[in-house]
Every structure is written in structure tokens, then in C-alpha cells.
Amino acid sequence: MSNLNFPYSLKTSSHGRDFLLLFPTSGFQSKPYLPFSRGYRYSSGLIVRTQTLVYASSLSHGRARIKGPRVVQFVAKAQPVAEELVEEKLRDPQTSGDSIRQRFLDFYAARGHKVLPSASLVPDDPTVLLTIAGMLQFKPIFLGKVPREVPSAATSQKCIRTNDIENVGRTSRHQTFFEMLGNFSFGDYFKKEAIKWAWELSTSEYGLLADKLWISVYQDDDETFALWHDEIGVPKERIIRLGEDDNFWTSGATGPCGPCSEIYYDFHPERGTSNVDLGDDTRFIEFYNLVFMQYNKKDDGSLEPLKQKNIDTGLGLERMARILQKVPNNYETDLIFPIIEKAAELANVSYALADDSTKTKLKIIGDHMRAVVYLISDGVNPSNIGRGYVVRRLIRRVVRTGRLLGVKGDGMGDLQGAFLPILAKKVIEISTNIDADVKTRASRILEELKREELRFVSTLERGEKLLDQMLADALLNAQGTAPCLSGKDAFVLYDTYGFPVEITNEVAEERGISIDMNSFDIEMEKQRQLSQAAHDTVKLGVENGANLAEDIPDTEFLGYNTLRSTSVVEGLLVNGSPVAQVSKGSEVEILLNRTPFYAESGGQIGDNGFLYMMEAENEQQAIVEIKDVQKSMGNIFVHKGTITEGMIEVGREVEAAVDANLRQRAKVHHTATHLLQSALKRVIGQETSQAGSLVAFDRLRFDFNFHRPLQDKELVEIEGLINQWIGDAAILETKVMSLTDAKRDGAIAMFGEKYGEQVRVVEVPGVSMELCGGTHVSNTAEIRGFKIISEQGIASGVRRIEAVAGDAFIEYVLTRDNYMKQLCSTLKVKAEEVTGRVEGLLEELRLTRNEVSAARAKAAIYKASTLSSRTSTIGTSKNTRLLVESMDDVDADSLKNAAEYLVDLLKDPAAVVLGSCPGDGKVSLVVALTPGVVDLGIKAGDIIKPLAKSCGGGGGGRPNFAQAGGRKPENLLGALEEAREQLTKLLEK
């Protein structure tokens, strides 16, 4: 730095402050064009970094241009600046996040690793909500459930973790979304190579100084300690032994496990080597974790060596970027900071000059925006359950944080607009090398974010006011005890106003108030509804699964070409345990060496049919009725059925026969699903995408991303297109090709499916091309007809169409025709006259109901007039009239009319409280007050709340009028008496 000179500077202003942008000349060409990834600002004698990309041009003409719309004044000479205040940091392109990622993958590719793409953030593993680690897609291989396809692999995996969400923005390293670079060995190499390459990558490829690297090893792992010290040359004082909690990985209570070793970067080596704590975030950051999977943990806790030893590693991309880019935290790397800059611009603040609180908020926004963009891209839409709740929670946290920073509307002048799409565009802009698919899904991502933000904002202000009141009440009611917000109140905020409980908790904590989470959880459980039925899964223990995977090869599937085959019974399972034979009447799971039965996958359910075990001379010995087929341990087909005759044994030959009629029904519905997706894209837009499907024998179900209900004319157009394609009698083309070629040709991948290097492509020429392993018709004419049964929303931004085709279509039409004939007979009209006749009957019913309602209202008013004589007078001048009475079985509307009649009759000042039990265990309540009573500070809502609570319900209204309902009619009279006493006390004041 001592050689840098600053003969040029640019004077500009931002947010009311003047700055000088200083430009060094040492080391540059004489041409006055100075590109910086980071410039520097000078203000009041203090140098601070700026993230603005600066270009100085035409300096001799006294003007300069900053990238963006601002034009600034050129200053011929900079003010004197102390050299020690200026830091030279011209970004090396080799330290960019994209470069670090590519260098990692190239490094391991050169050492024989197969570079594989990142898996989806929605994992196949049902035990995990989201993809939390790079090893997750390889877990079945590590557990011995599926054979390895390659000996070693390297990936850059998108990950989401929300367990440390409270630390995001507050520490230098916690994130919800991050990329994990990983190299994996499946029985190929082990400790020596993993350690050697990790060190070589860190010191030679990335250029980290060896004396700034520390190592941790498992406390009993002398072998690893020796490798680091003797082979690599790391001094003993920089190798720390840690316990089981820190440095021993397990997959569960039993199963594969092993010690870990981690590499740490030391930001302050000058602090020495004594009393070192690797957990000190101010000094160290762990950036590379090596897991040596070498043992199997048994039920008794003992460890036995694995036959195949594996390597599982993870290097945090953002952490390495922080180290190489020499920034104080992960957020200021080029992977996240562009988003923070955009957020600061919308909030009209300067990150460089911001206080710690503002910086924390900007970091939260930068982190969370990456998470929600990639989650939505991978098909996760905001909802109140599961993965959708994670997205909704993060989105709402960003919206609230943005508002706290002062972002109004879209931050660019449109107060009714949304600012999340603006930030998302920045995320998408820098997404190319993380996930190229994000850009193709951009329109759907932006639309979903806009819709969710505006939905939340519409209730946010009301919710914030209500939360303020609830917290104030909690403080008021504490009376010397620790203030606590009730779980019911927190749930109302969550359910009615869209406040994730975590946000409520954050706001409450700021005021020193806790939340009763036990009662909140009870309320959540009451209203929780599953969005879809759980799938029936084959439950095989890790040990049994591992043994079966070793002993039984993958099942050969013959079902594309035949519905019958001769097969050998490779295994039998009863209640998940292997057996040698099974007798009549038993439920059994059967593993065959080959099969014509389709196993459930890609949305298509498994085939039904029979297995026949034959004796000599073709005499039938046993029959098994197959009701379902599932895949387990990779590609082993599990035939689930019941033995209806005889006994079946392992090793015996059987004849497998698929139910041809049901298979045809499934084929018809599967091909129709492909046609439906193509029709949707043509009618409502190419941006719509599949979000799930079911191909059954009796119907098909197709879930897709779309922001509104489909119009009737759109549904008619979709049906028309599909039936036209069916009538075209197009011959389907099926071929196997590389995944790269298939995507290049425009084949659509099915939601949630994993694909190998070779894929099966099903094409309806000119209409549809999809990657699909399902069974299909050979000609669209086999579908015969297509009809949409229903279209509805199942989650925010997700719609569902159910439809029928083929035989199911014929059955549906015949059934509906039969219903119409019965209706015509009942109404005594022709089919074309049914609509008019029904409309006439509905109008008659409406008029009749109005007459009944009017009669009830008159009866209630008459009854109320007889009650007026029971009015009591209250107050110092005895001029306030109070009437509290039960009106037996009067309905809610009539009760309201009666109360309005009575307050008019009694004149001001007057208070009327009425209750009734209209039947079915219901209670109706009304409180009506005249202006004179309201002027005394008495509100109808305050009177009716405890009244309704006593009757097991709730309600509210205006200061002068409130209504409520309840479910405890037995408490009505007591509650009315309490209301009488309460009003009497208030009015006598």
C-alpha cells in the first residue's frame, strides 16, 4: 500500500453526504480507464469501502461516469489521505464465487471424480424436509441400499438449513441458503487421498498460507492425526483433538458412521497457539469437513469395520469466498452482496455507512432472498405446512425486515407495488453458475413472490397493530410475573394475519415477552390438515436393506414389451423381515429377478395382477394376488400381495401376469397427462410447470403452478385441444438417449424425479416430449376421450386438475347421462330445459326464504316489544335504561333486528344485551348501545367478548353494536347475568 498514489478523485453525493472516490495510478496503464470491483469513499477524514462498480473515463475533460444513472463532478486532485487508512483490494477474478466453485470441480475431475449436478432442494429422502447437505443425494449408496454408479464424485450442492435462522445476519457465517462443495468416494479412496487432496486444494489451488490453517481430528483417531502431521507436515500444535459431539459422524442410532477431520482458517495467527478455541468465530472459520465413513454402529453401540469405506466431504463455498475475497463475513462476498446492495438502494441507505442494526437487516434480506428464489424454482410454493411454510416464513421475514428499513411499496415510487421481485431479479441475474434452470423459471418465481408479498402486506399493518395491543396487554397483565403472550393470541396472528410465530417471537423478545408455545402447538394441531395423503412405503431396516442389496440384484423390468413372464422368487418378506416360505392367507412382499409389473414411480401407481407358482406337469400349486408394486433399495421391485392358494417359496419359479385391463387404464391416463401438460402450456402460458401428478386406473390428477383459477372457457379450450390430439391418432415415439441430448431437444422433466445419464423420452410428435419411465399407449386414438372432472387450488400458487380418459371417460359419461335422465324424470322436463327449471326453483326458494325471514323478524320484534317492560333504570340520575334478556330460540338475524328495535324504542341513553339458542348447540349474542352510553367510554365489543367466551365462542363489532356466537347454550343464562352485573357497575359510575 505504501506505493499507492491518489492523484484523481471523483466528488459525488448520496443521501445528503458528500464523498470523494479515490483512484490509485500505480500499477495501471496510462490510459485513464480504471475498473474497480470495490472503490473507496472519503468522508470527514474517514475512508470507507463502497460496493459501487466505478469507471473513471475522460478524466482530462473534467467529467467522470459512475455505472448507473448518476453523473458526478471531476476533482483534479484528491485531498491528502493517510496511507494507513487505505486498503488495496483489487479483486482477483480467480477469487470470485463462480471461479472458486469451478476450480473445485475441475480439481477433483482431474483426479478421476465424476462431476454431478446439484440435486433439488426437495429431497427424495422422506426423513428430511429439505436438502441440508451435499451427501444427501448419495445417502442410499452410503447406507448400502443402492449400488454405486461411479467410484467417486464431486458436486456443488444447493442447501437449505433454517435451524440457525436467528443467527442469520448476526454472525459472520450463518446462512439459510448456501452451496456445499463436496468430493465423495464410494469405496474408492480413503483417508490418505482425501487429506492429501484437501490440503493441496486449499494451499496450492486456492493459495491459502499453510501457517494459517488449523486441523481438528476425532479424539481417538490417531491414524488421521499421523496423516496430517507426518504426511502433510502440519505442526502438532495446530492439530486439535475434539470429542464425539464435534468430530464423529453417525447416520442414526445404528448404521454407517465414522470420525471427521476439519480444516480451519486462522484470521489472527498473531494470537499464538496456546489455549486455542477453534469455536472462536472472531479468529477461526471452519471451511472444509472430511468424514471418514469406516464403521457400522451395531445395536449394542459397538463399532465394526465396514466392508466398503467411504469419503464424504463438504467445503462451504461462501466461507471460502469470504477467505479469498478478504471480506469480514460471508454476506459481503460477491455471492450475496449484490443482493444486499440492491436492498440498500431500495431502502435508500448506504451499507458502508450503516449502523450494525441496519447491516444485520440487509444481511437477512440478502440471505433469505437467495433461499426463497431457489426454493420456488425447485417447486416449493408458500403455504402453511411443511416446505411451503419454510418459504412463507422466509418471505414474510424479508417483507417485515424491508419495512423496518423503510422500504415502501416497491421501493421505487410505486407504493402499491412489491419489492421482492426487484431483489429476486438480482438473485436470478447471478444464478447462472449455481442453477441455470432458475432463469428459465424466472417469470413464475417473480409472480409468486409478488403475489405472496402483496397478500402479506394487505394484512401486515392490521396484524402489527393487533400484536402491539397484545404485547401491551401481556405487559399489563404480568403483575410482577414474567410477561407472556398466550399461545392462542400467537395463533390468531399466525392463522388470521399471516404472522409466522417466529416473527411474533422476535418482536415479543424485543420487548422482553415470551410466548406460551405449548398452547400455540395445541392450536396448530387442531387446525392442521395434511395437504396430501401419505404414500404407502416399503419399510426395510438398514441392516436388512443392506443385506438384501448385497444378495439380490436389481429387478429386470420387462413390462414395456410384455405383460407376462417367467420369473424366479429371489426373496420373501413378511412384516419387513426375510422368510423362506409363506402360506395361504398371508400378506407378503415378493422380490423377483425379473417382472412385467410396473412399480409405482413418476406418479403412475403400481400394476395389479397375479403370480402363479407351478408344480411339475404344469399343475398349479400357489396363487398370489398382487395389489401393489413399489421400488426399494434403488431398483428392486417389491410385489405386495396376498397368497390366496398354496404356499410360495424362495428360489421357486413363478409365472407373473399383469392385469391387462388395469394396465391399459394406467397407460391411457399417463399419456393423457402428457397431453394435458402440453395443453396447459399452450392455453395459459409456457411458464406453468408440473408440481405433482397421480396416474391411477380410475382417473388422473395433475398439479401445476399457476396463480389463479382457470376460467371455464380455458378449461373448454384445454379439453378441446386434448380431444383433437386424441382424434389425430398420433403414433407415440419412445427412445433412450443421454440426459444432455434430451434437454437439448426440449424434453420436459417430470417434477420430483431423478434421472441418470441415460433417460427414456416419450414423444407425441408435434405435441409433447417428456422424460418419462412410465407406460404409455402406442397411439393417441387408444385414449378414446378426455374429460376434466374438477379444477381447484390446493395450495398458494398451486392448482389441481382431475380428469378421466379411456374406459374411465366412458364410465363417467354414462354415469352422468344416467343422473341427467333421473333429473329430467323428477323435474318432468327435457334435458335442455333442466337449467331453466332449476333456476326457477331456486328463485322460488329464495322468495320463500325471504318471506320466512321477514316473518321471523316480525315475530322477534313483537317478542322484543313484550320484553321492554323488563327494562331497569340505572345511573345517578336513573335515566339510563338497561335490558338484558334471553329470547329462547330466535335466530341470529332476528336477534339483531330485535336489538336494533329495542335501542330505538328505549331511547338514548340505553343498553341492550340479548341472547338466544337457535338450535344445534348454538348460541347467538347481541350487544347494542346508544350514543349516550358509548360516550361514557363503554364499548359493545368489550361487553360481548367475556359474554361470548363464557358461551364457548367469540365475536366483535363496532363500539355501538357487536355480535357473537358460541357452542355452550347451557352457559347462556349465567353469562347474561354476568353481563348485567358488568353493565350495571359501569353505568352506575
UniProtKB/TrEMBL annotation:
Pfam families assigned to the protein according to its UniProt record, in alphabetical order: DHHA1, tRNA-synt_2c, tRNA_SAD
Secretion signal, residue range per the UniProt entry: none
Keywords: Aminoacyl-tRNA synthetase, ATP-binding, Chloroplast, Ligase, Metal-binding, Mitochondrion, Nucleotide-binding, Plastid, Protein biosynthesis, RNA-binding, Transit peptide, tRNA-binding, Zinc
Cellular localization per UniProt: Plastid, Chloroplast; Mitochondrion
EC number: 6.1.1.7
Cofactor note: Binds 1 zinc ion per subunit.
Cellular-component GO terms for this entry: chloroplast; cytosol; mitochondrion
PROSITE patterns found in the cross-reference section: AA_TRNA_LIGASE_II_ALA
Catalysed reaction equations from the record: tRNA(Ala) + L-alanine + ATP = L-alanyl-tRNA(Ala) + AMP + diphosphate
Domain of life: Eukaryota
GO BP term, example: alanyl-tRNA aminoacylation
Spans traversing the lipid bilayer: none
Broad class of where this protein is predominantly found: plastid
GO function terms (MF aspect): alanine-tRNA ligase activity; aminoacyl-tRNA deacylase activity; ATP binding; tRNA binding; zinc ion binding
Cofactor requirement: Zn(2+)
Family: Belongs to the class-II aminoacyl-tRNA synthetase family. Alax-L subfamily.
Comment text on domains: Consists of three domains; the N-terminal catalytic domain, the editing domain and the C-terminal C-Ala domain. The editing domain removes incorrectly charged amino acids, while the C-Ala domain, along with tRNA(Ala), serves as a bridge to cooperatively bring together the editing and aminoacylation centers thus stimulating deacylation of misacylated tRNAs.
Self-association state and partner proteins as the record states: Monomer.
HAMAP family cross-referenced by the UniProt entry: Ala_tRNA_synth_B, Ala_tRNA_synth_plantC
UniProt function note: Catalyzes the attachment of alanine to tRNA(Ala) in a two-step reaction: alanine is first activated by ATP to form Ala-AMP and then transferred to the acceptor end of tRNA(Ala). Also edits incorrectly charged tRNA(Ala) via its editing domain.
UniProt name for this protein: Probable alanine--tRNA ligase, chloroplastic
Originating gene: LOC107766724
